[in-house]
Design a protein that fits this description.
Shape: globular
Radius of gyration: 11 Å
Structural class: alpha+beta
Mean pLDDT: 92
Helix content: 25-40%
Strand content: 5-15%
């Protein structure tokens, strides 16, 4: 998961991902296959989920946000912020 949260962004935002948050920082919770978890906005939750092998999204404080993050993740390549930087 993300090594250190970036100030002013949700904990799911990867330090190398330059994009801003979309919604509350606790909209969804992302779990990796090893049991680690992190809360985040829908935008960064989706980007993180797309980058995990065996990741799962669970509801946070925003109704419907987990489904939104899941749907967004299905169309994103892993580590999409690296491709966007090229």
């Amino acid at each position: 998961m993300s090594p250190q949260p970036t100030p002013g962004r949700c904990p799911a935002a990867h330090p190398e991902d330059p994009t801003g948050c979309d919604g509350p920082a606790d909209a969804v919770t992302i779990h990796d296959r090893h049991g680690a978890m992190v809360t985040g906005c829908v935008h960064h939750g989706a980007r993180l989920l797309a980058s995990l092998d065996g990741g799962q999204v669970h509801p946070g404080t925003v109704p419907g946000a987990a489904l939104d993050a899941y749907c967004r993740a299905t169309v994103l390549p892993p580590f999409c912020w690296l491709r966007e930087a090229q």
